[in-house]
Design goal:
The protein is of the alpha/beta class and 525 residues long. Among the domains are: 3-75, CAP Gly-rich-like domain (SH3 type barrels, Roll), CATH 2.30.30.190; 381-429, no CATH class; 438-524, Roll (Ubiquitin-like (UB roll)). Helices cover 22% and strands 18% of the residues. The chain has helices spanning 82-102, 114-124, 144-148, 165-172, 216-222, 319-325, 348-358, 372-385, 387-392, 406-411, 415-422, 468-478; strands at 14-17, 20-28, 37-42, 53-54, 57-58, 68-71, 80-81, 103-104, 107-108, 128-130, 136-138, 154-156, 180-182, 206-208, 231-233, 254-256, 278-280, 308-310, 333-335, 364-365, 368-369, 442-448, 458-463, 486-491, 500-502, 519-524. A hairpin with a 2-residue loop joins β20 and β21 (368-369). The longest helix has 21 residues, at 82-102. The N and C termini lie far apart (75 Å).
Length: 525
């Protein structure tokens, strides 16, 4: 749309001006000045000057009190059609490719019409089309998209000038193979009859709508268009109150709600999605999660297929939240980094061990694999850490007399299962929860050199927080092994016949569950 052609039909259109994007809310005069003005509501409210009013007269309304301003039509760009943007986007790559093909023995060959043919062939073969921030505003001439990129399966239209879902449908209905659509950083007006547009998105499996200023109500209203959607990305929108997605979004496997300030009490509203396997709630302001349909130790009917849950950057500070997650029947992967809860213990590795011990099926925690040895060590340490509290609450080493009170079992719902798995810890193994004075952390270990029997075993007291790297430094001095490559492992009387490798220099001894009386085997090359 050219400046001279601007009319009231431009209301609702998207424009770009000096690198900023906005939506036209008004076209007309603004007295006492002469000429035509566009009243624009900017995506970035810092770009504007007012709320759509000027000298006491309201011309349009804005979501933000400083989100609007008036600009002359000649300063606003209304964008280009899909095919024009496509040719501009791929023109440079095409010319470079043509240049390579036509350069023979340092001489350049000119072939009239070859560039047009080559471009058409190249575009027709595209299966992934990237038009991010290319000022696309509409489909262009009828069927031109179908003729230009007939094989497109993935389309990125993020950060463009698309104004409505009707415009998107006019593009999508020409792409018969379209399965992935990226629409982040757009502002799309909501269709009054979204189901009417569903044929344009009939094959769509992945949709990204990050930073589109959408509410959950609007998402649900639009979702009848996406009848077979499997992945939906809604990060950094205006989603707050969640409502039940009745008869829609039932095919979702992945849902990203990160960066939205959710009302946590509404989270159960989406818990019935039958196929949801991955849920991202990072940065959602959550402090509590509760599944009231299940008692401690039981499984909830909520999120029946959920395997991966991301809770990074929330306000979780209570272990009871982790206990609630144990109620999920299929949870295998969890990420909960940068939550206040993890700062409660003396170091992050101790917090990690407690999370592993409380979640029986966890295979991946904070993007790190949970090995069988790490799980065993975490669960044994958990039993020792809370063994005294268990006894004080009515626990007993004899199963028939083991009746801890409800408060303890609610706080530690897996404890009794772990006692049955490993047996009750001995009295000398119980770890009192005292201030972390150095004397309470010292371990007595014996260093043994199995490949050099002439060296006598050496007994030392070391803090459990001492890293493997520092232990190796100590052994270099103690055994006079300058420059040697040291390898460590350890054995315990509780795990007869097993030798556990200590292979990460940055981890502390307690990470490997090294305990009083254990033997550390030292080998070098």
């Amino acid at each position: 749309m050219k400046a001279l052609e601007v009319s009231e039909a431009a209301v609702g259109r998207r424009v770009s001006c000096d690198g900023q994007r906005g939506t036209v809310r008004y076209v007309g005069p603004v007295p006492p000045t002469e000429g035509l003005w566009l009243g624009v509501e900017w995506d970035d409210p810092e770009r504007g000057k007012h709320d759509g009013s000027h000298e006491g007269v309201r011309y349009f309304t804005c979501r933000h009190p400083t989100g609007g301003s008036f600009v002359r039509p000649k300063k606003a760009a209304f964008g280009v059609d899909y095919v024009t943007a496509l040719k501009r986007r791929y023109q440079v790559e095409l010319r470079e490719a043509i240049g390579e093909e036509l350069r023979i023995s340092s001489k350049t060959v000119t072939m009239v019409g070859f560039e047009d043919v080559k471009q058409k062939q190249r575009l027709e073969n595209l299966t992934e089309v990237g038009l991010r921030r290319c000022e696309v505003s509409g489909p262009g001439p009828e069927n031109e998209i179908r003729n230009t990129t007939p094989l497109a399966r993935s389309l990125d239209l993020s950060g463009n000038l698309l104004s409505s879902w009707e415009v998107l449908a006019a593009i999508g209905e020409q792409l018969d193979s379209l399965q992935e659509l990226q629409l982040s950083h757009n502002r799309l007006s909501i269709s009054s009859e979204p189901s009417r547009l569903s044929p344009a998105f009939s094959r769509l499996r992945l949709l990204s709508l990050n930073s589109c200023a959408l509410t959950w109500t609007q998402v649900l209203h639009c979702s009848s268009m996406w009848q077979h959607l499997e992945e939906l990305y809604l990060a950094d929108n205006d989603v707050t109150e969640l409502l039940r997605p009745d008869a829609v979004l039932q095919t979702l496997r992945v849902l990203d709600l990160s960066g939205n300030r959710l009302l946590q009490e509404t989270l159960p509203e989406i818990s019935g999605l039958p196929r949801l396997e991955k849920l991202n709630l990072s940065g959602a302001g959550l402090s509590a999660i509760r599944f009231s349909d299940a008692s401690p130790g039981e499984k909830t009917a909520s999120f029946p297929a959920l395997k991966t849950l991301l809770l990074d950057d929330n306000n979780i500070s209570e272990w009871r939240v982790v206990n609630e997650l144990e109620k999920l029947p299929d949870l295998l992967h969890l990420s909960c980094r940068r939550n206040p809860l993890l700062q409660k213990e003396k170091n992050l590795e101790t917090s990690r061990q407690i999370v592993i011990a409380r979640l029986s099926r966890l295979e991946l925690l904070d993007m790190r694999q949970v090995s069988p040895d790490e799980r065993r060590g975490a669960e044994l340490d958990y039993c020792k850490m809370f063994g005294s509290a268990w006894l004080k609450a009515g626990g007993h080493r004899e199963p028939e007399n083991d009746h801890p009170n409800a408060e303890f079992t609610s706080e530690h719902p897996r404890f009794l299962a772990l006692i049955r798995k490993y047996g009750a810890p001995d009295e000398g193994e119980l770890k009192e929860q005292k201030p972390f004075a150095l004397k309470n952390q010292l371990l007595t270990v014996t260093f043994v050199c199995p490949e050099d029997p002439e060296r006598k075993p050496v007994e030392k007291k070391l803090p459990g927080s001492m890293t493997v790297q520092k232990v190796k430094g100590l052994l270099h001095r103690l055994l006079r092994l300058p420059g040697a490559q040291i390898k460590l492992s350890y054995t315990s009387s509780k795990m007869a016949g097993r030798e556990i490798e200590v292979d990460n220099d940055l981890k502390p001894l307690e990470f490997y569950s090294v305990e009083d009386g254990d033997r550390i085997l030292v080998r070098w090359s």
